[in-house]
Specification:
Elements (H helix, E strand, L loop, with lengths): L14 H20 L5 E9 L5 E12 L3 E3 L5 H7 L1 H17 L10 E5 L2 H4 L4 H11 L7 E5 L1 H5 L3 H13 L2 E7 L7 H5 L4 E4 L2 H4 L3 H16 L3 E4 L5 H10 L3 E2 L10 H8 L6
Parallel strand pairs: 2-4, 4-5, 5-6, 6-7, 7-8, 8-9
Antiparallel strand pairs: 1-2, 2-3
Bound molecules: ligand C2E and magnesium ion (3 copies).
Keywords: Membrane, Transmembrane, Transmembrane helix
Protein name: EAL domain-containing protein
Length: 276
């Protein structure tokens, strides 16, 4: 728009903003090439049961950019979504998981692997079919896969998304709602979308006051009444684990048990109990 257009007001050149925008555009460019440059890797964080042994694992994407170095998911997932790059990245993640965690490659009891799935991926009408093909290619049991979605997915009420989630669930894939408590946190859609697992966000346990712990207890009880399992995120201390365990949470995830680790480190962790 014209700088001196009085109806639009004055627009000043902002060098900081300009630099930021340039950087964002450049990050988006780098992201588009990152897959072919083999810059992504996956870290795995154990999710433990009441006995503190590993029951599930969450796959977390890592980007080691040639240009920017290590970039945290919070600094690039949004751009991968905006550019649509998340679709091919997402398929790559599923393929890696199916390759590494199918029954043939697991010696011990099979662990369920949670994968974060963005709304953009679920808007792809071919999503379910593609997932099915990849899983079958590696003889991966659908029951060993869990897709973690966020509240924005269900709030949008998009038909393609709804159909994909329904079809994935019918295949036997577990659906978890991630970060519960950070958004609207309405219980209304939990049944409509056939969600199997509720992941309560770590914000509730960061504050150790009874008020917040009571909220966790109530969310946990309602989720159970709705037939869902509960994972509590961000458990960092033994004290937190004890309180949440007594409260009746089913699964626990957090630095107290393990940080996200490489596949090699994970193999090491799953062949012995977690040391404390
Ligand atoms: P999320 O799905 O809620 O993942 C949990 C995040 O909490 C991870 O951050 C994990 O490292 C961190 N975390 C785990 N335990 C603790 C703890 O005890 N204390 C604290 N302070 N943090 C803990 P990370 O790996 O940085 O990922 C951030 C977010 O990026 C994820 O949140 C998820 O929304 C998104 N993300 C990560 N990988 C993927 C992916 O493959 N696809 C998509 N679409 N999103 C992803
Ligand atoms: Mg998650
Ligand atoms: Mg989460
Ligand atoms: Mg999160």
């Amino acid at each position: 728009c014209k700088k001196n257009d009085p109806s639009k007001g004055l627009i000043f050149f902002n060098p900081m903003l300009y630099a930021t925008n340039l950087k964002v555009e450049d990050i988006k460019m780098e992201l588009k090439q990152a897959l072919s440059k083999d810059e992504f890797l996956i870290h795995y964080q154990p999710i433990v049961g009441k006995d503190q042994s590993i029951h599930k694992i969450e796959a977390l994407l890592r980007w080691r950019s040639e240009k920017y170095g290590f970039v945290a998911p919070s600094d690039f997932i949004l751009y991968a979504e905006e550019t649509g790059a998340i679709i091919s990245i997402g398929y790559w993640i599923i393929e890696e998981i199916c390759k590494n965690f199918n029954p043939l490659s697991q010696t011990d009891r099979p662990l369920q692997i949670s994968i974060n799935v963005s709304p953009i991926q679920l808007m792809d009408i071919h999503f379910t079919q593609t997932i099915k093909k990849i899983a079958e290619k590696y003889s991966m049991d659908f029951s060993n896969l869990c897709f973690e979605i966020t509240e924005s997915v269900v709030l949008d009420e998009n038909m393609v998304v709804y159909d994909n989630l329904h079809a994935l669930h019918n295949l036997g894939i577990t659906i978890a709602l991630d970060d519960f408590g950070t958004g609207y946190s309405s219980f209304n859609y939990l049944r409509k979308y056939q969600l199997d697992i509720l992941k309560i966000d770590r914000i509730f346990i960061q504050d150790s006051s009874n008020k917040y712990l009571n909220i966790v207890k109530n969310i946990n009880d309602i989720a159970h009444l709705l037939g869902m399992e509960v994972i509590i995120e961000g458990v960092e201390t033994k004290e937190q684990f004890d309180v949440l365990n007594n409260m009746g949470c089913d699964y626990f995830q957090g630095y107290y048990f393990s940080h996200p680790v490489t596949l090699e480190e994970l193999k090491h962790l799953t062949t012995k109990s977690i040391p404390h």
